[in-house]
Amino acid sequence: MIWVSGWRLAASVSQAGALGLLGAGSMQPELLRAHIRKVKAATQCPFGVNLPLLYPQMQDVLDVVIEEQVPIVFSSAGSPAAVASALRDAGIIHVHVVAAVRQAEKCAALGLAAVVCEGVEAGGHNAPQGTTSLCLIPQIVDAVDLPVIAAGGIADGRAMAAALALGASAVQVGTRFAASVESSAHPAYKDAVVNAGDRDTVLALSSVTPVRLIKNAFAQRALAAEASGQSVEQLRALLGRGRGRAGIFCGDLENGEIEAGQICGLIDDLPSAESIVKNMVAGYRSARRALP
Length: 292
What we know:
By secondary structure, this protein is an alpha/beta fold. It contains 13 helices and 10 strands. The chain is 44% helix and 15% strand. The strands form 2 sheets. Strands 1-2-3-4-5-7-8 form a 7-stranded parallel β-sheet. Strands 6-10-9 form a 3-stranded antiparallel β-sheet, covered by helices on one side. Helix 2 (29-42) links the parallel strand 1 (20-23) and strand 2 (47-52). The model has no long low-confidence stretch (mean pLDDT 94).
């Protein structure tokens, strides 16, 4: 959700009754500070910050999160041990994104509050050789005595009902909110998500930094480079810098990374965040009533 979830989206989601998260991966520390303060000014509801630990500025970002007394942090793309002690000492609720049972068990041993169980269907950075949500959720639910938040392939109330039936305590939703009024993504990116079909995403760059994105010219070049056996160094050179920003924030649909989950084939409109939350809850209730 970097380049997508700024203060408008996070505040709107929280105000609608869910938990909005700021995507800190695309922000330098002082920009994040400004977004945190704007969320606080826009809503009195709880919100959180996602810290993708693979980015080099995350230690400075962590300092800002603590200074600004953010109540909840979702860490991802790295070891939660790197930030667990600092967050615990600051009294911040700490949740970590995992893609395997072993990772969830490590989070439980660290004393985290919950885990996000992310299936390979999810958009953006992903796990190599990942497991689908349907298979992964119940395995993690059985393995740890923590609340499990399901993610990956969830865009409506039906999927929410399915995840909770598998034992999850909640769901985390990305791509559906990326294509919303309050999303800070470029209009061309939002249109790409809306126009995508069920087979229009691909998991690329698995040997460098696995990422699920909508097939475009860059994705095709990346797949061809991997298939031809190019080295990690060559793939990193192909990736370069700023591909996510180019595709998501600047709308370069040819040369940028158009990050999105497989569920984008179900998305065909650009509603408000409030409408998304309300429709998901209504769809969840409807799905429960319809079960035999």
